[in-house]
Amino acid sequence: MKIYQEKVGAVIARLKINIESGLNLEEVQKKQKQEGMNRFDEAKKESIFKKFIHHLTDVTTIILMVAAIISFYMAITTDHGDYVEGMMIIAIVIINAVLALVQENNAEKSLAALQSMNQQTTKVLREGQEQMIPSEELVVGDVILLEAGGVIPADARVLESIQLRVEESALTGESEAVEKHAEFTTDEELSLGDQQNMVFSGCLVANGRGRAIVTAIGMKTEMGKIAKLLNQEGSKKTPLQNRLDSLGKRVSLLALIAAAIVFIIGVYQNEPLLEMFMTAVSLAVAAVPETLMVIVTLTLSFGVQKMVKKHAIIRKLPAVETLGTANVICSDKTGTLTQNKMQVRRVWFRGDTVVDVEEAMTDEAMEVLKMAALCSNAKVEQVEEDSQQVVGNPTEVAIVSAVENNYHTKKEIEEKYPRVAELPFDSSRKVMTTVHKMGKKYISITKGAFDVMLPKFRFGDLEQATVVNDRFGKKALRVIAVGFRIFEEKPSAFTSEYLENEMNLMGLIGMIDPPRPESKGAIARAKRAGIKTVMITGDHVVTASAIAKELGILTHAKEAMSGAELHQITDEELTKRVKEYSVYARVTPEDKIRIVKAWQKTGAVVAMTGDGVNDAPALKASDVGCAMGIAGTDVAKSAADIVLTDDNFATIVDAVAEGRTVYKNIRKAVNFLLSCNISEIFVVLIAMLLGWGAPVIALQLLFVNVVADGLPGFALSREKAEEGAMKEKPIAKNQSIFGDGLWKWILFNSILFTIVTLTGYYLGSFVDGVSTTVGASHEVGQTMAFLILGYSSIVHIFNCRSSQSIFKVSLSSNKQLVEMAVLAIFIMTMVALLPPLQTIFSVVPLSMNHWRIIISFSLLPVLATELVKFHYSDTETED
Ligand code: ATP
Predict the structure, then answer these.
(1) Cα–Cα distance between 226 and 259 in angstroms, integer?
(2) How far from 166 is each of 140, 206, 547, 557, 673, CA to CA, in Å?
(3) CA-based nearest residue to 275, from 540, 67, 487
(4) Going by C-beta distance under 8 Å and a sequence separation of 6 or more, which residues neighbour residue 378?
């Protein structure tokens, strides 16, 4: 017999569970030992060794290996040849691969750590207490609580169901949510989709709530059976990574063409064939910006780590880039801009009197509150022996707390009027109803948004209530209307149409939800950064506008649009007018998608917040979907790009700032590496064209690439945000990475490096007058070219740190970069000065004059760049 064919009682008896208290810790530990954890087997990761081999089989590495073999061949066939060059090439290849591997591994590790932060949690009943536990820790027999928006953590038999509907498309392909019933029984053989008394791991609770008892975990669940290997989507590249990948390929192609030209010229000029081949190959290899991709991955992962510290967990890597380009943030009000700590302030009963419950509670006001408390699911929990806490939906928490604080208990009222049915609250309906037994009669209580309930009332002072509702709203109070109906017998239907009509108005409750203290500042900061904040709320337009004004989102009442108005205009009209509005009130989550799309049609990059099940489509449609970590449902989280662990609006603005820094740091790396690589191509190509011979040998070129470019280059990923980054406009959506004049800088610096290196090479090779002690020679020229190329690259990294003068950027803000630069200078100098290294790298001793030229030439490009920067900053201040 299958589980769904068994009676609930039989399942419970077989599993020997007390469903009132759940499992105890001892049983859980025993079961975990026997059955393992509730997780899927992960796909095997590529081993370090495999990754290493992967790096070694890279095209550029293969070319280098060929070069090493040719070098060995030359050493064997010619009597003056030596093996050192070939060995050094191999050593450099290995060092390069190891360096890349270590950095890549660090980046991957921090990204993998993110995955574990996205861990799902489940509410279970254990040791008589409801508690949240990581879903991984569930065992067979655990009693789980299901709520709308949750992801079902394991296969389970339903024990209790209240309007429970589950979306099982992940398992059955059927996108329509199916109803689940605890009492369903069958003898027949059913497919998964028809097993109405079972819920399955990985499916989503679309509506209602319920309880279920876990029957299978991990790989034994239905999902586990089909998803034998669950691969995470972590390894996908971001759009920028893809763009840079193709950029890298283009530069490589350029390098190959240059290498071919160099080789042909060399042959034409009767240079030794194999040596020319070596120069050409090394040029091709040296000019390929292979470190660029590693630096980009590092920068992204570093940005991600910093965002985590600021309470934003990145779920999808491309979001890091998109955040930097965001220029509209559509934010929920409750909980994100406000504290979500509602407090009842006023109650209206009838006539002119409004009771300020903080000053003096009256019996009549208490009746309204008690009735509202009956129609709510907020619960009183014992925290410690003598302290209690009300938990649940904040609107309901406020109501129940007001009751409890005034010497009544929810328990006592519930015992008097036991609940027999419930129509749950949801953000689209904006109301909730419960039915209770009242002696021999029945009472249905409905609470919800006043304007939604107004047409459903038949009795009561509706005119005065409308006036009071407006007055409350202007004071930024959220208004909850309470209505009821009495039935002589059990209502014939528990439907919204029947119960939520012809009601009596009981009263209005006004509650405050104060703004978060940091919201106002964050909105102003976003504004300075060219980002518009739009408030989207289910609250009333008057309440919403009052808060928006306080926060600086809205300056005039006409910037607010209500859901009703929104429904009247077409999508085209909305697109035309969307920029005029900063507040959307009384909207449903479904409306959010229209607002996102309208903004996107104007070319905006939109970040959108969301927490509920129905927010998922808007979160997916937006450019950066931000789910709430605390109040958010699993469904919203899995649709989002980032999760805000503190549900705070200010966190989005911080994440945008971080996104901008990541983008800028990648541009800095592109600037640094490309100016160095392009100048290498120019130097060799021009020298060959002029018939000056090879200005640097293969080994020297490789060494410059690894030591002078690689070592400090990696540290660029750690550059801190530049001052003023959040005073600039957002990065344009499709702006090329070279946009905003970057390519001009790259060209400018490449030309400068080429000029100083070639002049140095010329002076060393051909001008005898430079020194009285060391005469001009090809080797002296090569030594000078090698050192100028290396030193100027290292110094250039300080140029790239900022668009401002190097003297304005503190050295201590990126210590690693400074250390790496000093280390690189030290290594280059050792190669130039220590005789054994001189031999290996074909470097010769130089005179003081040569050194003076090298040092001043290496600093010249910085000087020139400083002058240009100064000129630009001058014209900017004049503007
Ligand atoms: P925001 O959209 O800014 O996050 P919100 O999520 O609180 O606000 P909803 O939850 O959609 O907005 O609430 C919309 C309206 O529904 C509220 O203004 C209130 O009148 C009513 N409401 C909220 N919670 C409840 C509840 N538990 N029972 C009945 N009505 C409620």
Answers:
(1) 52
(2) 21, 5, 36, 41, 53
(3) 67
(4) 390, 391, 392, 393, 396, 397, 399, 400, 410
Sequence letter at residue 787: L
**How many other β-carbons are positioned within 10 Å of the β-carbon of residue 570?**
9
CA of 615 to the centre of ligand 1 (A): 14
- pTM of the full predicted structure? 0.78
Residue 74 corresponds to which tokens in the numbers above?
A: 């030359």
Integer Cα distance of 688 and 783 in angstroms: 17
In whole angstroms, give the CA distance from residue 867 to residue 862: 9
Q: Which two tokens stand for residue 386?
A: 């003598």
> What pLDDT score does 204 carry?
86
pLDDT in tens, 389-410: 888 888 999 999 999 988 888 9
- What is the rounded CA–CA span in Å between residue 166 and residue 201? 11
Domain ranges (residues) in the chain: 3-42+111-232, 52-101+236-308+656-720+741-878, 312-339+517-647, 355-379+403-510
- State the SS3 of 395-448: HHHHHHHHHHHCCCCHHHHHHHCCEEEEECCCCCCCEEEEEEEECCEEEEEEEE
Provide the pLDDT confidence category of residue 81 given band limits of 50, 70 and 90: low
Neighbours of 138 (CB within 10 A): 26
Predicted pLDDT at 634: 81
Residue-wise pLDDT tens digits, 263-295:
888 888 887 777 777 778 767 766 766 677 778
Ligand 1 pocket, CB under 6 A:
332-334, 393, 395-396, 425, 427, 430-432, 447-449, 478, 480, 537-539
From the candidate CATH numbers 2.70.150.10, 1.10.10.10, 3.30.390.30, 3.90.1640.10, the one assigned to the domain spanning 3-42+111-232? 2.70.150.10
Kindly report the CATH class assigned to 312-339+517-647: alpha beta
Q: Could you list the active site residues?
A: 332
Task: Reduce the DSSP state of residue 217 to 3 states and report it.
Answer: coil
Please state the length of the chain.
Answer: 879
Which ranges of 22-58 would DSSP assign to H, the alpha helix? Answer: 25-35, 48-56
Pick from 246, 182, 248, 237: nearest CA to 210? 182
Q: Which range, 220-224, 585-589, 621-625, 634-638, has the best average confidence (pLDDT)? A: 621-625
Lookup: tokens for 173: 């392909």
Q: State the residue for tokens 């000053």.
A: 359
Q: What residue has token string 């000065």? A: 833
> Could you write out the DSSP letters of every residue in 619-674?
HHHSSEEEEESSS--HHHHHH-SEEETT--HHHHHHHHHHHHHHHHHHHHHHHHHH
365-401 exposure pattern, b = at least 16 Cβ within 10 A, e = fewer = bbebbbbbbbbbbbebeeeeeeeeebbebbbbbbbbb
In this predicted structure, what is the pLDDT of residue 45?
64
CATH superfamily of 355-379+403-510: Calcium-transporting ATPase, cytoplasmic domain N (3.40.1110.10)
Same fold, 312-339+517-647 and 355-379+403-510: no
Q: Which atom of ligand 1 is nearest to the CA of 586?
A: 14
* pLDDT value for 235: 47
CATH 1.10.490.10 assigned to 52-101+236-308+656-720+741-878: no
- The rounded distance, in Å, linking the Cα atoms of 248 and 4 is 57
pLDDT digits (tens, 9 = 90+) for 737-790: 787 788 899 999 999 999 999 999 999 999 887 777 778 898 999 999 999 999
Which of 502, 501, 553 has its CA nearest to residue 532? 553
Please report which confidence band the pLDDT of residue 229 belongs to, taking 50, 70 and 90 as the band edges. Answer: very low
- Residue from 395, 478, 512, 647 to probe ligand 1 pocket by mutation (most atoms less than 8 Å from CB): 395
562 alpha carbon to ligand 1 midpoint, in Å? 15
Q: How far is the CA of 331 from the centre of ligand 1 (A)?
A: 15
CA distance 402 to 375: 14
Report how far ligand 1's centroid is from the alpha carbon of 428 (Å): 9
